[in-house]
Design a protein that fits this description.
single chain; Dna Ligase, domain 1; 33 strands; globular
Length: 600
């Protein structure tokens, strides 16, 4: 969409998007008058904003005082207290060593949250329930903070168990005017990173909403904030709310606020940066309808609710044929998903007059989204938005581990869904045979008046019968039960719309017959003794190796650390054993499943 693009360096962020010299060169080269910093990287970096100002270039965001005050979680908490904003109990200074962290955590009382002072987006955050986890959390949080933000300072505060994460969007100008633009519910998370957001929240009543909004504006005015910003709160079951942090930038999830208020936040940021006054008053800010955002990631949802996946998008089709659907993405068919950046593919947003309508549109949008070439999290997203607990609004930041205590295993078919799937597969199979007959002159068994098929699904076998020629609407019999299947299908299309027993449905279509045929040639996967070998669970870079051949490791002891998509992951021994061989070293790039360490 850009008129010009300038390469700012190689893929590693410290050589490109965090390289201020390279970005300043790009600004001079293009003659840019202003810079919108986006969501991450240098968007909350006061040094970058100062360098722009020195060059006479406008930074589309708040001034450096507000960035510094709110970008530092330690200082921001002190300012919030002074502005009479509710805050979480904790230590209001910088934690210098792991042993200091343990001492502070013991004084606060477990559990505690260890956080990067300059952080955001879930980077540099760890929950600790005991002294050992505090030491480990201190090390990983400081390393992630240094890698992502160039600042390894940490703070520690009380961890509020089972809260909701609700944030208030604020907008302020350079003339002392500030507004709160209602809330966003961001409680569906994994590893402290948001997965599904919605606006408004099902939980807040008008009184609590106003109290949170007014406190958010108090904080913005306390730091003379100008631009769009977000004040994040944790809210407990009794609707007590506590200041978490302020993001002095545009949030990833800003589209859902735009949907319910009718305001274009990026436009407002540009107007404020130019010096215009806000052209709205607080009473002008509505809540019109409901909006939901699903973050579509290149991740394997069956591993810890989403471990990064890399690869090339061989096929990509956004569901923009549907009404009230918005897709914000930075990729296209043929793009590569690499290990160097956040694995987000897009932000999928739906809007409706009611929450039920917005949820229905989200379900349809997920069903109509085509992504091939990388593993993605759409199966998990669809399960979340159709789960009874989510539909009822009974959610918290612990939603995923509570609903899926053994991890996400995919959708579990009930009897009716299994029957519909078998009927659909049989109908598609016959459709493919008819096409073969027409195109290739293959007159084999399709000339029969009725087909009787044996279909396998999971561990079971099923009897399926249907008439031929296959008409637009057909009754398919599955183990004696009838399912009405209707539709006119183009098997070259990646999506096949149909009706099952009168209900509209849509499903992605792979080259199913070829896949089934080739699957018979695949060698059976031999199970490994995973207690004696350690393989990389994801593609990434080896940051540290803590053992060498001959060492004896205890159960739970760290063996190595893999960094993927700016997150560090500690891999540990599952038993006490002696190290036989080490197959990796720091700085190496590894793929998913690569052998790292062997134990005796």
């Amino acid at each position: 969409m850009a008129d010009e693009a300038v390469c700012v360096g190689p893929a590693p962020t410290n050589k490109s998007y965090l390289n201020m010299d390279a970005i300043m060169d790009a600004i001079r080269l293009t003659g840019a008058q202003a810079v919108h910093p986006g969501y991450g990287f240098l968007s909350e970096n006061k040094v970058f904003a100062k360098r722009l100002a020195a060059e006479g270039v406008m930074f589309i965001g708040p001034d450096t005082h507000a960035i510094h005050a709110m970008g530092d979680k330690i200082e921001s908490k002190l300012i919030a207290k002074a502005a009479k904003v509710n805050t979480i109990p904790g230590f209001d200074g910088v934690v210098k060593t792991a042993e200091d962290a343990v001492k502070i955590a013991q004084e606060i009382g477990y559990p505690v949250m260890i956080k990067a002072s300059a952080g955001g987006g879930g980077k540099g955050m760890r929950i600790a329930w005991n002294d050992e986890e505090t030491r480990e959390g201190f090390r990983f949080s400081s390393q992630e903070a240094a890698s992502s933000f160039g600042d390894d300072r940490l703070l520690i505060e009380k961890y509020i168990d089972n809260p909701r994460h609700i944030e208030i969007q604020v907008l302020a100008d350079k003339h002392g005017n500030a507004l709160w633009l209602n809330e966003r519910e961001c409680s569906i998370q994994r590893r402290n990173q948001k997965v599904v957001e919605e606006a408004p929240s099902t939980f807040l009543d008008p009184v609590t909403r106003r109290a949170m909004g007014e406190q958010a504006v108090q904080l913005a005015k306390a730091v003379e904030y100008s631009s769009a910003g977000t004040v994040e709160f944790l809210v407990d079951s009794k609707k007590n709310f506590y200041f978490l942090e302020m993001n002095t930038r545009l949030q990833v999830e800003h589209p859902i606020t735009e949907c319910i208020t009718g305001l274009d936040l990026v436009e407002q940021m540009i107007r404020v940066a130019k010096g215009y006054r806000l052209n709205h008053k607080q009473e002008d800010i509505p809540i019109n309808g409901w909006a939901i955002e699903s973050r579509v990631y290149a991740e394997d949802p069956y591993k810890s609710f989403g471990l990064p996946s890399i690869g090339r998008l061989s096929q990509y089709q956004e569901p923009l044929n549907l009404s009230n659907v918005r897709v914000d993405s930075g990729i296209q068919e043929g793009s590569d998903i690499s290990i160097y950046y956040d694995p987000m593919i897009s932000k999928l947003v739906t809007y409706g007059a009611t929450r039920a309508e917005a949820l229905g549109k989200m379900e349809a949008a997920l069903d109509n989204y085509v992504i091939r070439g990388v593993t993605h999290n759409i199966p998990l997203l669809r399960e979340i938005i159709t789960h009874p607990r989510f539909i009822s609004g009974d959610i918290s930041t612990n939603f995923l581990p509570e609903v899926y205590p053994e991890g996400f295993k995919g959708h579990q078919l009930d009897v009716t869904e299994r029957r519909e799937l078998l009927a659909s597969a049989a109908a598609l199979y016959i459709t493919a045979q008819l096409r073969s007959q027409k195109v290739l002159g293959n007159l084999s068994p399709v000339e029969w008046n009725q087909w009787e098929l044996h279909a396998e699904l999971g561990e079971g076998g099923f009897f399926v019968a249907l008439n031929v020629p296959f008409s637009v609407c057909e009754q398919v019999e599955v183990d004696g039960e009838k399912v009405e299947v209707s539709g006119q299908w183009n098997l070259a299309s990646p999506l096949l719309p149909w009706r099952l027993d009168g209900f509209h449905s849509c499903c992605p279509c792979l080259h199913f017959m070829l896949a089934a045929e080739l699957n018979s040639y695949m060698p059976e996967k031999v199970s490994e003794d995973t207690s004696s070998i350690l393989r990389s669970p994801m593609p990434g870079t080896v940051v540290a190796v803590s053992v060498k051949p001959g060492d004896t490791v205890a159960e739970g002891q760290e063996i190595c650390v893999i960094e993927a998509m700016k997150m560090q992951n500690s891999l540990t021994a599952v038993k006490q054993a002696k190290v036989k061989n080490v197959h990796c070293k720091p700085g190496e790039t590894v793929g998913e499943g690569d052998l790292l360490v062997e134990l005796e």
